[in-house]
Structures are given as C-alpha cells and as structure tokens.
Design goal:
The protein has about 375 residues and is an alpha/beta fold. Helix content is about 45%, strand content about 15%. It folds into two domains: about 5-270, Aldolase class I (TIM Barrel, Alpha-Beta Barrel); about 285-375, no CATH class.
C-alpha cells in the first residue's frame, strides 16, 4: 500500500497554502445518508488491516471526517462465529457516525450480518462490491458481484429489508474496461432502497494500477438522485476540492493517503470545509501518535482476549496479546516517520519489533538522528 509521504504532504501545503480561501470554491456542504448527516463531506475508506478501532479513534480526533468505515467484515466468518472477525465490529462511542462494511455472496448470510452490525450499534451498513483481491472475488464476493447484477441486487434487497439503519454500497466502475457497469447497478440499488453509493473510479481488473478516471464519477452523478461519494486518488486537499468541483459528487472518500497520516486527512477535511489548512505535524508529533496507535492496539487486543477468556489474563497471555498487536502494525508504524532523517536506518528494526518497548526505543533513535542533523 502507498503512504501519503510526509515530504509530499509538506510540498502540497507549501505550494497551496490558500486552497480554502483562494476563491476556487465555497465550503462544500455536508449530505445526508437517510437521516444521518455527513459533515464535513469526507469519508475515511474501509481498509483491511488498517481502519481498526484504534486507527479510527485517532483519525476522528485529529481529522474529524464526516464518516468513518470499519475494515471489511466477512459475512461468512461472522456466520461461523469467527472471533477475529467479530472483534472488528466493536465500536467506540466517540467515532460516530460509523459505518460497518460487510462482504459476502449469500443474501441470507449478508442479511444476518447486517442485523448483527445494527445490534452492535452501527449507524450505517455498507456493502462491499469493490474489493478486487482474488481471495475475495473467488468466493463470488466483492467486485465479483459486478459480473452478476441479479445476485448483487438480491443481496442489496436482503440487507435493506433486514435492518432499520441506512444501507449503502461501494462499487468499482465495473469488472473490466468492456463495460461501465456502475450506472445500471446503481439505479437498481437505488430502487431497492440504498441511501448512498460510493464509486471507486477504477475497474476491478485495474486493482490500484493506473489513474482513477473521475469522469466516471461525473457520469454516475447524472444517473442517481441519492448521494454519491467519489473515491480514487484523493491524496491532497487540492485533489479533494477538484473531485468535488469537477464531478458534482456529494463527498470524497480518502483511503491510502490516510494510512499512518491522519494529518493528511485533516488537511483534506479542512479544505473542503473552507477552513485554513493546519500546519503539518512535527516529527515528535508523528512519533507520539505512532506510539499512541501501538498502545491503543495493544489495549484493544488485551480487552478482546479477556472478553473471550472471561477472566483476567495471565502475564504470558498479556505478552502474547501485545505481540499480536505489534506484529499487526509492523507495516504501518514505519510509515509514520517515512521520509524523515533516520527513518530508513531503523526501518528493519521496526519491521522486526514484537513489543511496545522495542518500537518505542527504535522510534527514539529516529528522534535522536533527526535532532543530531539539526545541530550546528
């Protein structure tokens, strides 16, 4: 996955300091998903192994996007009671409004999972029809449903009928370049009763290759009366403003740009709200949030383990929980300091870390190296 590199972020801020007040646009209004107001019109995208509860809480505090979305939730895994999947559905009261995104190929099981999401406190249920990863598509789920519009509609109808909260859908433009399938599918879904649709403006076969074609978002906007959120290559404040201006979509969804960089999300949120873009974080601020992310992930893992065991954890069990949480973040923690002096030297140490103490000590080395370069 690509990070929104700190140097690029600083460059974007330096070259466009007045984006929110340059006269290019007025603040973009929020929109409604059913009766739920999404304001500012910025959505944190669902990302597997990224948008966990600890990450979302940090993103909410620093960036305050209008809507947060969980990691992908496998309906089949929920059906069979997989604890690893069920814990992804946990919600913090401070992160609302929150959407739980589910995926699957069986209408009844998708409906069952949607009901559980509602019971667990989700404000919105989102159906994933955009994931192009082979292990998902081979089950007939995710973007594979773009090739089976009747099954896709059946799933949407089952979920809409199963819950009282709003249902939304995220799609790709189509399976491949041979057919821009999204407009026909979107109209069918709208008739069934969804309250918002997100379009990632690439075809499933592209994965993340090439550039997102925002013209497809503009075309789909003409076909729908419900809110439309645009997704794909929104990396900077300028990107967000341009997507909203050029396509007429109601909101923007930000994904990879926000990985280990809630400040990039905050800059985008400020721009579309017509507010001054905040200053980029210092290295110390980045490290502090990285450590907060790790600490919160460890606490979350311990709490979920205790919940399963129904008793306090032993010391060895706490160490196991800590190790699981740290290993899950090995690919993300280095991205918090990517581009800073000293980060490259300690990257391998971060990838090999298995405890909070090890990560903290390694990040302290980055501080020391960076500080040493500033000394006369």
């Amino acid at each position: 996955m690509e990070a929104f590199e700190s140097k690029l972020y600083v460059l974007a801020i330096a070259t466009q300091p007045n984006i929110a007040s340059s006269g290019n646009t007025a603040p973009f209004p929020g929109f409604k998903i059913g009766e739920i107001t999404i304001d500012p019109p910025v959505v944190l995208a669902p990302m597997e192994d990224v948008t966990s509860l600890p990450m979302r809480v940090i993103a909410k505090r620093i960036a305050n996007p209008g809507l947060l979305v969980t990691e992908f939730i496998s309906a089949m895994a929920v059906h069979y009671g997989a604890e690893k999947t069920l814990k992804k559905m946990r919600i913090d009261p401070g992160e609302r409004p929150l959407s739980i995104q589910i995926f699957g190929a069986e209408p009844a099981i998708m409906a069952e999972t949607a009901r559980l999401a509602e019971e667990m406190g989700a404000d919105i249920v989102d159906i994933n029809m955009g994931c192009w990863v082979p292990k998902v598509c081979k089950t007939g789920s995710g973007a594979a449903l773009l090739k089976d519009p009747d099954r896709a509609e059946e799933i949407v109808r089952a979920v809409v009928n199963a819950v009282q909260i709003p249902v939304t859908v995220k799609v790709r433009a189509g399976w491949d370049y041979s057919l821009f399938a999204a407009p026909d599918l979107a109209k069918r879904f709208e008739q069934v009763g969804i309250k918002m649709l997100t379009l990632h403006a690439r075809f499933a076969k592209q994965g993340f290759e090439g550039e997102a074609d925002w013209r497809l978002i503009g075309e789909l906007r003409k076909a729908l009366s419900i809110p439309l959120v645009g997704n794909g290559d929104v990396k900077t404040p300028e990107d967000a403003v341009r997507m909203l201006s050029e396509t007429g979509c109601d909101g923007v969804m930000v994904g990879r740009a926000a990985i280990a960089n809630p400040w990039a999300l905050a800059a985008i949120t400020a721009a579309v709200s017509g507010q001054p873009i905040p200053q980029p974080p210092t290295l110390s601020e980045r490290i502090d949030v990285a450590l907060e992310h790790v600490s919160s992930a460890i606490q979350f893992e311990e709490e979920e383990f205790e919940k399963r065991m129904k008793r306090p954890l032993s010391e060895s069990e706490r160490l196991d929980s800590e190790g699981r949480a740290v290993r899950a973040l090995r690919g993300i923690v280095p991205m918090y300091v990517k581009g800073f002096e000293g980060a490259a030297q300690v990257r391998s140490e971060l990838y090999q870390s298995s405890s909070y103490a090890e990560i903290s000590a390694t990040l302290q080395k980055v501080r020391e190296i960076a500080n040493a370069t500033l000394e006369p």
